[in-house]
């Protein structure tokens, strides 16, 4: 079935007239090392634009200066090691965590993913947060109990689940195997849940084939999950809004433009 707004519009977070930033969710994005900060910054801005009340980039103290200088509304949280990250994850006000964009294929990234999952956080796992489990994917699947979204492109998908031969069947099998919602990116994006739900986001503009656009998509999903949206609905809404933002912006799109087109898309959706 095609991914159309009527399927998730009622679940899309709406503002309350007496609401505050504290009841719009807090999304934490894991920041990469000092020379690779752009991807996490794109994700964090996307999470904020889609409506999370608070967004923080958690980064190593050695890269804090870059994030703190570059970010404005997005906050920073220095985390020097796994213990510090575990302490952050124990904060119940943090309602979603996004890990992976340019995080690095390192033991640290793997440990942080496991820590977030063991803390029971709603998580979006993208890019390096998937690749770090390529040698032993069951190490990841065994700790998935909370609402989790995996957002692989075909390369990342093949590292965890094997080569893609049938995008719909393979995405569904991956969701069932991992216990997570799987969003398999591409010109047509497949979103599959472990319970068998599956939607296809068709006809996204090819302008989305640009560096960092997947980081923005992960940020949209993380920002919606932080506001309490069901993970499958959040994945479908994020994919649709991502494509629509590209359509609204038109030619010459770079990833930075996607978040800036979100207000127009949300207005058309009645938010
Ligand atoms: N501005 C930034 O800082 C950006 C950082 N990025 C980060 O760069 C790191 C590497 O990500 P990449 O995805 O480039 O590299 P990866 O090495 O993880 O995956 C790319 C490889 O996967 C294979 N592949 C198969 N199907 C593919 C498909 N449909 N789309 C893409 N690759 C496919 C190809 O062999 C390709 O060489 C990640 O940490 C990522 O988050 C990227 O997101 C781009 C933007
Ligand atoms: N030809 C295309 N048409 C429409 N959307 C595309 C096309 N190619 C890629 N996309 C979308 O662009 C995004 C690319 O994400 P990804 O591969 O993770 O790139 P990056 O790592 O640079 O962020 C995905 O959302 C994917 O669905």
TrEMBL record:
Domain YjeF C-terminal stretches: 4-269
Gene Ontology terms, MF aspect: ADP-dependent NAD(P)H-hydrate dehydratase activity; ATP binding; NAD(P)HX epimerase activity
Residues the entry annotates as binding AMP: 185-189, 214
Gene Ontology biological process terms in this record: metabolite repair; nicotinamide nucleotide metabolic process
Classification via PROSITE patterns: YJEF_C_3
Binding site for (6S)-NADPHX: 39, 153, 215
Superkingdom of origin organism: Bacteria
Catalytic activity: (6S)-NADPHX + ADP = AMP + phosphate + NADPH + H(+); (6S)-NADHX + ADP = AMP + phosphate + NADH + H(+)
EC code(s) of this entry: 4.2.1.136
InterPro entries attached to this UniProt entry: CARKD, Ribokinase-like
Entry keywords, A to Z: ATP-binding, Lyase, NAD, NADP, Nucleotide-binding
Cofactor: Mg(2+)
Quaternary state and interactors: Homotetramer.
PANTHER family, per database record: ATP-DEPENDENT (S)-NAD(P)H-HYDRATE DEHYDRATASE, ATP-DEPENDENT (S)-NAD(P)H-HYDRATE DEHYDRATASE FAMILY MEMBER
Membership in a protein family: Belongs to the NnrD/CARKD family.
Main function: Catalyzes the dehydration of the S-form of NAD(P)HX at the expense of ADP, which is converted to AMP. Together with NAD(P)HX epimerase, which catalyzes the epimerization of the S- and R-forms, the enzyme allows the repair of both epimers of NAD(P)HX, a damaged form of NAD(P)H that is a result of enzymatic or heat-dependent hydration.
Name of the protein: ADP-dependent (S)-NAD(P)H-hydrate dehydratase
């Amino acid at each position: 079935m095609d991914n159309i707004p009527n399927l998730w519009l009622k679940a899309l977070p709406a503002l309350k007239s007496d609401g505050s930033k504290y009841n719009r969710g807090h999304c934490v994005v894991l920041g990469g090392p000092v020379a690779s900060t752009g991807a996490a910054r794109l994700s964090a801005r996307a999470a904020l634009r889609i409506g999370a009340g608070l967004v923080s980039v958690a980064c190593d103290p050695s890269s804090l200066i870059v994030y703190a200088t570059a970010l404005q509304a997005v906050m920073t949280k220095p985390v020097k090691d796994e213990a510090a990250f575990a302490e952050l994850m124990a904060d119940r006000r943090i309602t979603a965590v996004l890990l992976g964009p340019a995080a690095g294929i390192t033991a640290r990234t793997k440990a942080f993913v496991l820590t977030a999952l063991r803390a029971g956080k709603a998580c979006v796992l993208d890019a390096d947060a998937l690749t770090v489990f390529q040698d032993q994917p069951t190490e990841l699947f065994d700790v998935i109990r909370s609402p989790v979204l995996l957002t692989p492109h075909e390369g990342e998908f093949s590292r965890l689940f094997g080569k893609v031969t049938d995008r719909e069947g393979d995405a569904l099998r991956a969701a069932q195997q991992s216990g997570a919602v799987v969003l398999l990116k591409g010109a047509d994006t497949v979103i599959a849940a472990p319970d068998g739900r599956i939607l296809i986001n068709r006809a996204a503009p090819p302008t989305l084939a640009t560096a960092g656009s997947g980081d923005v998509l992960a940020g949209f999903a993380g920002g919606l999950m932080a506001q309490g949206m069901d993970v499958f609905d959040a994945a479908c809404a994020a994919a649709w809004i991502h494509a629509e933002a590209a359509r609204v912006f038109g030619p010459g799109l770079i990833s930075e433009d996607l978040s800036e087109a979100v207000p127009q898309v949300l207005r058309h959706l009645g938010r």
